[in-house]
Amino acid sequence: MASRVLMPKGSDTMTEGKVLKWLKNEGEQVANGDALVEIETDKVDMEVESMASGVLRKVLVNAGETVPVGQMLAIIGKAEEDISSLVSANGGAPAVAPSAGHKETPAAQEPKPPAPVTAPVPAATASTAAGGRILASPLARRIARDTGLDLTAIQGSGPGGRIIRRDVESATVAGAPSAVPAAQFAPQGPEFRDEPLSQMRKTIAQRLSQSLGPIPHFYLTIDVDMKKAKELRESANKLNPDLKLTYNDIIVKACAVALTQHPDVNASFMGNAIRYHNRIHLGNAVAIEGGLITPVVRDCNLKTLQQISAESKGLIARARARKLKPEEYTGGTFSVSNLGMMGIVEFSAVINPPEGAILAIGSVEEKPVVENGQITIGFRCRMTLSCDHRVVDGATGARFLQTLQQILENPILMAL
Fold this sequence. Notes:
This protein has helices at residues 84-89, 138-147, 165-173, 199-212, 227-239, 247-261, 305-320, 394-409; strands spanning 3-6, 16-22, 29-30, 35-40, 45-49, 54-59, 66-68, 72-77, 104-106, 217-225, 267-269, 274-276, 282-284, 286-288, 291-293, 296-297, 334-338, 357-371, 374-388. The protein has 416 residues and is of the alpha+beta class. A six-stranded mixed sheet has the order 10-19-18-17-13-16.
């Protein structure tokens, strides 16, 4: 019996997905477990595996097209099998939405009159979509514009042949024009362009509208002495150069320890109840091309600094490669967002619902400070806690920050 390949639901927030690339061609043999198609969800790019064996009889959604969760993407069956009823059924409403991950369901039994099937769209050339539009990320376009590069001359290495930052940077290094003649700085062409939202950007817009609008935020800021945290980091990296412990690793661990003492901050507003989480899963906001994502270190309070550092590096690498699994970026109970490495001294982060709080981390600065009536050189970091006032009161958030400050200024407390 022929099987349907459906657009999977890759996360709780995913309502539609884009087909990036088919990894099998029509008429090609497919085995159960073979990588079949690459899709873009609202969080990541992911390969969907086949759950059936047979021949890829019909591709119903071409690369570059966006369809709702549950809509049929293709049909797998025997080479001589009649699939006309399934093809005609594709003109109707989306099938029942599958749960997380790829699903294929048995073929429909009731034949229906054949409906016209859209002819396959000719394959686009690399980096060029149907219609001649160049596929390139906004950042790649900006770099190319600033350096005077012609995007049509660059081969994209991103999903679907999309030109991304490294392609443009590589072209620059290879000898592409590095400066635009002065005359070309005169205003030329249209004043703006509109580009369709990616699935990730749609979700960011939706989630943040659900956060800063309905959620009553308030903010608490502290100034933390990072001298001993700096000594810890330097000593650990000297003993084990491969560790590459970061300030962020230390702050994440300190947050997890502080949350064990302040469970009221490790909580979520659920409408008719406040959910107090018994486990501490730390989300770490990571900027990636086209948006941001928050991979989660689970049971962070139970892990050593070395474990947290190694796990965080792996998650961040997979996030930037858009290869995170849904379980790696969902289920966080508290998050941190760090822009210190970009020189940002202080900022306020937007809560990632349904979490009740998020900590924004600025840069560690070497600056003059007053200690015991004397001006001396210190290392300071400003941290701002954004709180959902429906869950966390001002005094509750303040006590959490006091504990966090105490831990970071005395890192030995993380080992007790």
